[in-house]
């Protein structure tokens, strides 16, 4: 039987408690359908046995393995099987069976995985109360979990214990004024020279090598062997001053991570967070891919918006420096979207470039009426795209990426104050 509903913080607590009381076997899935995010808790007779999330699944697993199984690289761990490995409960059970990790290490990885995801669920369920997009849930009993347990012994994690750990961590995070900022964000230095004047040389060298937009706050806490909250609080003053930004990063590419472990080389530097972010709102897949290829090769950061109805919400989330906007789209056209953009104060000075097949006088007049910044006639050509971007973003130069095309999004500044303990932490 499927049970559907909207999730609040109180509802989430009741759902988990009901799974415990009923000795539930199955999965509890929570979804944010707008941003295509999901979190799943797996139960066996009321105990948690695993948790999964669409947010950074490989990054999270590698982090937990590094924390609890430091003697084992991920590359070494997959030698038992094929090149494609599901980093999940059964994978860990096989490592135990082969003697590569101990049972208590498997339990620690599972507990860490569950606690992180419960923390994220608590944060999301609280934040959604201020959003027009609710979280929804499904509780799905599954006999397949019973059949899975016949093949290996289960690590049963006390649900109440993990819930308490996650709740205490979330309360501390919220009371520190970090409610709106996910530990899955990555710090990235925006003004290195100014930062260098404010902190000791040793701390600066460590920070410049780590806060490069590649590693989330959680990743850094594990790398530095520090607690997440005080580590985050130590850089908050510099985030408040705009010297460091918090940006969204994609998950680690599994094959890339495995190669790193095999060769023991450092990760290439990703595109710098100071590189301008360009957005394209276009229902044409070919046009989106063309602009994306042109701009990313030139070193710009880039996001695609396929659904024009959701365009404004996505733009508000990422705050691009320049927007390409297709004129002819279903449901709502480019002029209407441009009017919406201009009515939003944060975008009053953001360049908006209309993409069109018809470069006629009527379209140009209408574009001026809705305060578009310019026109780009199709078919799309690299020299035209780059010329118009450089015209409207003349004071910033993109930094060329060094071989790894991983999207990073616009920095979100944290407007908070805290006493710095950066020197002690780093």
Percent strand equals 15-25%
Structural class: alpha/beta
**Biggest sheet, spatial arrangement of strands:** 1-5-2-3-4
Spell the H/E element sequence.
Answer: EHEEEHHHHEHHEHHHHEHEHEHEHEHEHH
Percent of residues in helices: 40-55%
The value of Rg in angstroms is 24 Å
**Kindly, what is the distance between the CA atoms of the first and last residues, rounded to a whole number of angstroms?**
51 Å
Shape label = globular
Largest sheet: 5 strands, antiparallel
**What's the number of extended β-strand segments?**
12
Question: How many domain units?
Answer: 3
Q: Helix segment count?
A: 18
Give the averaged pLDDT, no decimals.
Answer: 76
Low-confidence region ranges: 78-85, 254-273, 396-426
So what's the oligomer here?
single chain
Q: In summary, what is this structure?
A:
With 426 residues, the protein is an alpha/beta fold. The protein contains 18 helices and twelve strands.
Itemize the secondary structure elements and their pairings.
Layout: E1 3-7, H1 9-21, E2 26-32, E3 37-44, E4 47-53, H2 57-68, H3 74-77, H4 89-97, H5 103-127, E5 135-141, H6 144-149, H7 159-175, E6 186-189, H8 192-196, H9 201-210, H10 217-223, H11 228-240, E7 244-247, H12 254-263, E8 277-281, H13 285-297, E9 301-305, H14 311-318, E10 322-326, H15 334-342, E11 352-356, H16 361-369, E12 374-377, H17 382-392, H18 422-425
Parallel strand pairs: 8-9, 8-10, 10-11, 11-12
Antiparallel strand pairs: 1-5, 2-3, 2-5, 3-4, 6-7
Helix pairs in contact: 2-5, 5-7
